[in-house]
Every structure is written in structure tokens, then in C-alpha cells.
Design goal:
The complex is a heterodimer.
Chain A: H1 3-24, H2 28-48, H3 52-77, H4 89-112, H5 124-127, H6 130-137, H7 142-163
Helix pairs in contact in A: 1-2, 2-3
Chain B: H1 8-28, H2 32-57, H3 61-91
The chains are: A mainly alpha, B mainly alpha.
Chain lengths: ~170, ~100
């Protein structure tokens, strides 16, 4: 077993376990901690794919920024454990099971697909660097890059307007 | 089991499993913040599929898509949590099944 295979199983099983932990914990803080672990596991998976720049970005943006925001809101609202629903509970469970079944069906199709790509592309390591991503981002994707900065500005203004208290 | 490298399909299968867990989380949980976290999980599983496609096919475009997904997810996090905050301020609840102000 090569290192890539061993790391894939380590991070893959860790990612699935922490994902299940996120959606099953009653306490929202426990769910958030599970999600942080999940993001780190995904960053490890990106490293096994030799996408080092996006692995760093994953930790910075998700574990660093988004999860801090989530934990901060949980703390602000001071929520207790989520009690289970009494009515409608079975309906939700059935819906959840149905969605899981549909996706598992798609998984079966994937399992039966003929193997296409066994190995990473030979130039995968050079694709994952900040240099090649920056090159593409500021030439081919210059317009989407500017558009996304406008979107972030709009999100910033929208979040402030939504969350601020009414003055006067 | 004698594996030298992980084939493309395995990453796609892992991404699909994670997406399924996230989708089940969105429908089964009541807490809006946990629903929000499950949505982030679904976005991340798609990111994993994008990156594996980029690295196995030797095409940088998949990684650029991941960058944009991350930016949209960051914006979504800010606006989504602001909505949860405004909701809690007005209705004193974050449970999605107790919010029915649009239901007439």
C-alpha cells in the first residue's frame, strides 16, 4: 500500500465519520467542532490530490473564517440541545431516507462504471501550486474574479444590514 | 488488497457519500445553524469532486471553480448567519419548523 492510498483511507474515513457526527450531534457546538474536523480531513484529501494551494485555502477560509462565524453565532444565541420533534418527525425521517437511497443508487452506478483514470495526471503537482492558479485566475478568469469581489462586497453590505439593530 | 494509487472513481464515490450525508442533514435537522453547516458540507463535497477531476484529468479549471465556490460559500455564510440572527431577534427561535411567517 502506497502512502497516497493509506492517507486516502485515513482522511476519507475521518471525513465520513466527522460528517456523520456533524448531523447527529444534538448540541450545536459539538456539531460545529465535528465540522471543523471534517474541514481538516478534506484539506488532507486535497493534499493527497497534490492540490496544496487549495488545501491551505480550505483551512484558512473554512476552518479559519466560516467556522469562527458559526461558533460566534451559536455563542451569541446561547442555544441549548435540540430536542427531537414529536409530530412530523417520521415524515422528515422518511424524506431523509429517500434522499439517501437516491444518492446511494447513483453511487451504485458509479461503482459499476468502468475505471477511467487510475493515476493522477503527470502534471498534477504543478497544477496545484499558487503560481499556476494565480496565472489562470488573473488571465482567463479575470472577469469572474472581479465579479466575485463584487459579490463579496454585496454579501458584506447585506449581512450588516440584516444583522444590525434598528437605530432611532 | 494491492492498490498502488487511488483511482478517480474512489474520490467521486467519497464525494457522493459526503454529499448524501449533507443532504440528509439538511432535511432531518431542525436547528437552522446545523442545516447551514450541512449545506457547507455539501458545497465541500462538490469541491472535492472538482479538485479530483482537475488533478486526474490534468486541467486547472476545476481548481478555479473551487476558488469561486469557496468565495460564494463565504458570502453565503455571512448572509445566512445574519438571517439566522435576525430571525432569532424577531421570533426567539432558530428551529426551521417553527418559522412559518410566510405561510398564510
Amino acid at each position: 500500500m502506497s502512502l497516497q492510498v493509506a492517507l486516502f483511507f485515513l482522511f476519507g474515513i475521518g471525513a465520513i465519520a466527522s460528517a456523520i457526527g456533524t448531523i447527529t450531534r444534538r448540541n450545536p457546538v459539538a456539531a460545529a467542532v465535528n465540522l471543523i474536523v471534517h474541514f481538516f480531513m478534506l484539506a488532507g484529501l486535497y493534499l493527497t490530490l497534490q492540490a496544496q494551494f487549495l488545501a491551505i485555502l480550505q483551512i484558512l477560509v473554512y476552518a479559519g473564517a466560516i467556522m469562527v462565524l458559526v461558533v460566534f453565532v451559536i455563542m451569541l444565541l446561547n442555544l441549548g440541545n435540540e430536542e427531537a420533534l414529536r409530530e412530523q418527525f417520521t415524515m422528515r425521517k422518511v424524506l431523509g431516507a429517500a434522499i439517501a437511497a437516491i444518492f446511494m443508487l447513483q453511487l451504485g452506478v458509479l461503482f459499476n462504471a468502468s475505471p477511467s483514470q487510475r493515476y493522477l495526471s503527470p502534471n498534477a503537482a504543478s497544477l496545484g501550486t499558487a503560481e499556476s492558479i494565480g496565472q489562470a485566475l488573473f488571465t482567463t478568469y479575470l472577469f469572474p474574479f472581479e465579479a466575485i469581489s463584487l459579490l463579496l462586497l454585496a454579501a458584506l453590505v447585506g449581512a450588516i444590514i440584516l444583522a444590525k439593530r434598528k437605530v432611532e | 488488497m494491492n492498490l498502488q494509487a487511488i483511482p478517480f472513481e474512489w474520490y467521486l464515490i467519497l464525494a457522493a457519500v459526503l454529499f448524501t450525508i449533507g443532504a440528509v442533514g439538511v432535511v432531518t435537522r431542525r436547528n437552522a445553524i446545523v442545516v447551514f453547516m450541512a449545506i457547507e458540507m455539501m458545497l465541500n463535497s462538490v469541491n472535492l469532486a472538482f479538485i479530483s477531476a482537475a488533478q486526474f484529468l490534468g486541467d486547472i479549471n476545476g481548481q478555479l471553480f473551487v476558488l469561486f465556490v469557496m468565495a460564494v460559500a463565504a458570502g453565503e455564510a455571512a448572509v445566512g448567519l445574519a438571517i439566522v440572527l435576525a430571525l432569532f431577534r424577531n421570533k426567539r427561535t432558530v428551529y426551521v419548523d417553527e418559522v412559518n411567517v410566510l405561510k398564510w
